[in-house]
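Quick question, first post here. What does this chain look like in 3D?
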Amino acid sequence: AANQMNKYAELQNEASLGNDVATLNLEAAKLSLEKGAIYPALDLLVNAEKHMELGQRWVHSYDLTLEVLTILAETQLQMGKVDKAMEVARLVVDHGKSLNDKFRAHTVILQGLCSGRDRNYDLGVEKTLELLEMYGEKHPKKLLPGQKCVEKAKLKKMFPKGSIERLMELPLATDERGIQIQTLLVDHLSPCASFGSSYQSLNWFASARALKNTFKYGICSVSNMAVLNMAVHLRLEGHYEEATEYCEYALRISEKIPLKLGSNHGHVRMTACGAVFSASRSYNYCLNELMESRREFLRAGLASKSIMPSLGYSTVYLCVGLPLAALEEDLVAYSKDANAFGCTYTMLQWALIVRQTILNLQNSVDDPTILCGDAMDQGEELQKVEGHAHKMTLRDINTHRLLLACYYSDWDTAEVLVDALDEYLDTHDNFLARSHVRRCYLGLAGFALGRKSKSAKNRKKYGAVGKKMLKSFTTEMKYGSVNAYPMVTMLEAEEAPSKHSYDKAIKACARLGQVHHEAYMCERAAEFFEEQDDEGWALFYADQAFILYDEWGAAGKTNQLKQKYKDRLSTASQELSVNGSIQGRPRYSAKELEGLREIDWESFGA
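> Answer (accepted):
Ran it through. Tokens below.
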């Protein structure tokens, strides 16, 4: 009925058909959103606003205007139309009669602030604190000495013997004001403080306060994330077992919360994998969980956010060392989705960076450490972002360039990049796999430069970088990380090269199927024996490196080895096909996306 009226208005060149038709479009849009069909819902909402009687609409049609514009702003944000969403949301904030009426518009503005080209998380913290103060909730901008200890003591009293089983017995929250306070703490203050630069201590405080409030207000739509945020802090403090327990409880709480449009089920699963399970469980386990997270985002209509677990999957995939071709194919599809949904641009850049890294490994290029090719141009991409977003993109570009510098043995470039990444040597990253990649190649490059640098000062300097990264992985291994052991053996081999240490590292990487690291260790072993003038062992390890790089799909690297060793590599190694030993397959599926583009009318009668 709404579509018929909209078509009639279009044919008759009628600007507005009145509030009755606006209401018809609104109800149709809500049904569409209920089924997750976000594309037709947005069209219906745009028509609803168009048909409203504009004169004095906030006076004569307040409830209709409030509902149409609020849902329109939320839907535009979900579709990545950030500027339009914030413009509409500001209208609601300016004309809303109460804090409750304005709340959803305020959250759209908060999300929009952190989705621009500069990713201004610090401003997001400040605006969230202002909103909390409107609710009578005063929070410090930084923790005073001893304040964290006091808050920890309060939490311990709530959870006897450290168990959070009591949470599962709590009733569902009904206090609307309390739910809104929890939403501001969990969905806005905590993540903005975490990713920003000026208020990071508030991340823990917001998580702890939200967890305490759960006993006051009950279980609400963000309680799962409140528990999960605390799990992340426990992991950062080295309590891997307890962090995993909190994660499992967060997922159990998710089961109590209905999966509907805008729900956070996908976000909870993604964060559990990226921030905790990637420390306590194998990366292979996380691959499937991240794909399930993507499906949950899409089922909740959060198309623009579904790119996040896809990118997390890509980074974990690189950590595992599965064949490059399948991932490159997936990244093409993910990038198209990111463009279509208008996702935050730094997310799209992350996909472009990983894809260009893969292309530089797959192909012979003049300078493989420069991210410039079919996927992106690093210089052009850096010009497209500013502020904090520029810093994030530069960090990720330099990390992947360092990866390439290590594989292509470009130690002059590696030296420049290690210096550029110096500020991240002690930085904690909530997404562990991203930190894992950065620390891995900082460590490998550090030990290599510690041997190869011309000055004693630089050898000492870069050797210290390698030792710091080795210590971080050793600490993680002691805490219980199964993914840290290969890193420890690799870095130990580079710190004190010998046949025994390289063989130990090669075996450790092989056991977890990390063919790329296995290949790298074989190549470094070959280089070690060349320096010892032991051509027999050098060629043996070079042959193994060639086979393994070929298995990974790094044709650019195998071509470099052919040039380096010319006719000395064995014919058998160059002809041997080992691609059957590990399998990579594209994981992209457009099935869930189709549900966002059209309404499943038959399901309404179910």
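Confidence is low (pLDDT under 50) at residues 576-583.
The radius of gyration is 27 Å.
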